Amino acid sequence: MQALFFVKLYLLTVPVFFAIDLLWLGVVAKTFYRENLAHVLSPTVNWPAALSFYLIYIAGILYFAVAPALAQDSLGRAVLNGALFGFFTYITYELTNMATLPSWPIKVVIVDTLWGIALCASVAGGSFMIGRWLGGV
Predict the structure, then answer these.
(1) I need a surface site. Which of 43, 124, 128, 131 has the fewest CB within 10 A?
(2) What are phi and psi of 20, to 5 degrees?
(3) Pairwise CA distance, residues 19 & 27, whole Å
(4) In this predicted structure, what is the pLDDT of residue 137?
(5) Comparing C-alpha atoms, which of 60, 12, 9, 127 is closest to residue 1?
(6) Average of pLDDT values for 4-23?
(7) Helices and strands of the chain, counted as H and E runs
(8) What are the distances in angstroms from CA 43 to CA 36, 40, 68, 83?
(9) With contact defined as beta carbons under 8 Å apart, do 57 and 20 qualify?
(10) Do residues 85 and 64 touch, judged by C-beta distance below 8 A?
(11) Where are the beta strands (DSSP E) in 1-137?
């Protein structure tokens, strides 16, 4: 597949990721994080860092989950690879925080890791379908 295809796929995947994750962070789990992490949360968001993370992370989902799935024409592969990507990245973040930050709750480790699995699996699946729609299979 060519670079232009992946640029289009990336640009169409970005709003999918943002819509799902911002719904989680801004609505569904908003109070969960405040209640459990108030002692370490910053009162303001560092938007350049946050946006940089999101843009890099989405590229990771495409590279590790969606591209191999498109090559195999397998939605199941996209979802599985996305779930695994979410698990490994989120659990690494959570356990690093637990090891280095004061009072990082195990409840946050579990909930956030499960969220990472669900988020990345759903974004990878959606992106795979977008890729098929773009003619990448």
Answers:
(1) 43
(2) -70, -50
(3) 11
(4) 65
(5) 9
(6) 96
(7) 6, 0
(8) 14, 9, 40, 31
(9) no
(10) yes
(11) none
Q: What is the CA radius of gyration of the chain?
A: 16
**52 has a pLDDT exceeding 70:** yes
- Mean predicted confidence (pLDDT) in 32-52: 93
What is the C-alpha separation between 91 and 103, in angstroms, rounded? 17
Structure tokens at 48: 């350049």
Question: Could you tell me the two tokens for 117?
Answer: 């699995």
pLDDT in tens, 62-104: 999 999 999 999 999 999 999 999 999 999 999 999 999 989 9
Contact assessment for residue 15 and residue 55, using Cβ atoms and an 8 Å cutoff? no
Distances (CA, A) of 89 to 7, 60, 84, 130, 135: 23, 10, 8, 23, 29
Length of the chain: 137
CA distances from 126 to 62, 70, 97, 121 (A): 11, 12, 30, 9
User: Using CA atoms, how far apart are residues 98 and 109, in angstroms rounded to an integer?
Assistant: 8
Q: Give pTM, 2 decimals.
A: 0.94
How far is residue 74 CA from its own chain's centroid?
A: 20
